[in-house]
Amino acid sequence: MIRLLLVEDDDEDARLIVTRLRRGGIDVDVDTVLSAGQLRASLAAARPDVVISDYNLPAFSAEEALRILRDARCDAPFLLVSGQVGEERATALMKAGASDFILKDRMGRLVPAVQRELRDAEERRALRSAEAALRASEERFRLLAEHSIDGIFRYRLRPDRALEYVSPAVTAIAGYRPSELYADPTLLAATVAPEDRPALEAAFTEPQSNPVILRGRHRDGHQLWIELRTRLVRDPSGATVAVEGVLRDVTEQRAAELERQRLDHQLRQTERLDSLGRLAGGVAHDFNNLLAVIIAYAADVGADLGPEHPCQPDVERITRAAERAAALTRQLLIFSRLEPSRPEVLDVNQVVADTEHLLHRTIGEDITFSSELAAGLPPVVIDRSKFEQIVVNLVVNARAAMPSGGRLTITTRSSGNGRVELIVSDTGVGMTPEVASRAFEPFFTTKGPADGTGLGLATAYGVVTEAGGDIGIDTVPGRGTTMTVTLPEAGRPAVVSALDAPGSASAAAGARHVVVVEDDADVRDIVVRILSRAGYVVTAPSSSAAALEICTAPGSTVDGVITDVIMPEITGPRLAEAIHAVRPELPVLFISGYTAGNLPGGHRLADDTPLLSKPFTADQLRHAVADLLSRARDPSRA
């Protein structure tokens, strides 16, 4: 049903119009008005679908009717049906908004004209509805874009390059306001790291199946990781005219991913180290037995030859190679936690002083070595042998950084906040930030395969952190490196043992009687030789049973026992138990190629058990035996 608003004062003409419309298939509901007031009242009651008006009416004119319709914002088609009207008036009405003009003597045009205007009106309503929906959609998109945490943009590429739109989220991502980017679109590209700008340009000119990850800098300077997704906009010819995209700040996700990768890498390294540690632990006993023989006999041969003998350098090379093999095995065991810690209160200055002779031999003549040891330094608590290893490792690394010579300085000092610092400085090649960041990774080394294992600093880091300390690196490429080991103060004074007292080994020997129990004949023979030359009376029985009989026989003159831990007939600890059942005062020193925490068969030694690990030097053996017998003679030192 079409609502027809008819402005007509002639009833006959009105009936004619309605009749023609109905016969033409247009079903109408007619509301006839004769004045401006009636027209306004009708419009207020309901909006018409079409308006048909005569030109001349007694109360008002077609021009006034058309004006009333437009003032009421009624856009229904307005058709004039009238007698003779001048062309000038008809043109003026059409310009004012009339849809068509039909002469009463040509009423055959009425139905087609109304049908046409109704169709056009429907199309206009549909268009307005679509435009309204589009505006609503655009508003929803605007709100979505402006409240999204992702940056949304459109960048025109042709005819010239310009940023057409960027959402407010870009401020949180890059630090620039949209107004600043509109004024200077290059600011956004400038935040991207130079090495990633080719990827940015490709994302603007080539189709991308996957997001592009770009590195950059926020306006305030902090590092960014940005995920960029783009879509190319093409014109009908296929030319790319613009690019639309989304920027997402993935800095936190990237940091988490890098941390996951680091932990994954660390896990693989740990598993690798664990495997190597198990391997090292498995061969440590036999390997250290061999090294003990090599080191001891080399030292013996060197002493017999004298310092001027032409073969002396060869003997020293043998000794250094064996010591390096022993150190590598020890580092593997320490880092894989197979070498237990025996923390004790240490004087850092004393440890540095005790190792200086070894350090001088290690660094060579082309490097100037000096030490600046602070007086009255508080003691620290750490495993002595492991701390000595740290000092040696740091010095070896410093030496390697100065292939053409330089200056190496060891400094100790109190930081004043309850911590003690050991500082090793060199004037070598230094490290880049990338190398320094990986310096403590196990197996990472910048040395050749023959010169480095990548375990030195990793081992040092593990030992120091286990003792509650830390290691710092201060390095500049081309200017040198300073390594600072920081340890907490012990809170009680260090104890100087017989190992630290000059001449204690020879003074303790005298005519003391020592029994050596060792199933490896080579090791047994060199231990007997070293101790015999030191002035001890040494008995080396052929079996554990014979040793037990000698030690426990009535009137036995044995002052101490040196026994291997793992032996075929009976273990060292079981032998010691049997001896102590008869002679509880008799001191026992254990020697072993295994570590205390890696004994086979589940055997363990108490933390305070005297243990000398193989390989050992002649000096270490003499000091260990002297200390053992001194403690037995003076129980207050035990």
Automatic annotation (TrEMBL):
It comes from the Bacteria. Residues 137-211 form the PAS domain. It catalyses: ATP + protein L-histidine = ADP + protein N-phospho-L-histidine. Keywords: ATP-binding, Kinase, Nucleotide-binding, Phosphoprotein, Transferase, Two-component regulatory system. Residues 3-119, 513-629 form the Response regulatory domain. GO terms for cellular component: plasma membrane. Pfam families: HATPase_c, PAS_3, Response_reg. The modification 4-aspartylphosphate is found at residues 54, 564. Its EC number is 2.7.13.3. Residues 282-491 form the Histidine kinase domain. It is found in: Cell membrane. Gene3D superfamilies: 1.10.287.130, 3.40.50.2300, Histidine kinase-like ATPase, C-terminal domain (3.30.565.10), PAS domain (3.30.450.20). InterPro entries: CheY-like_superfamily, HATPase_C_sf, HATPase_dom, His_kinase_dom, HisK_dim/P_dom, HisK_dim/P_sf, PAC, PAS. PROSITE patterns: HIS_KIN (PS50109), PAC (PS50113), PAS (PS50112), RCC1_3 (PS50012), RESPONSE_REGULATORY (PS50110). One of its GO terms (molecular function) is phosphorelay sensor kinase activity. Residues 208-262 form the PAC domain. This is histidine kinase. It comes from Dactylosporangium sucinum.
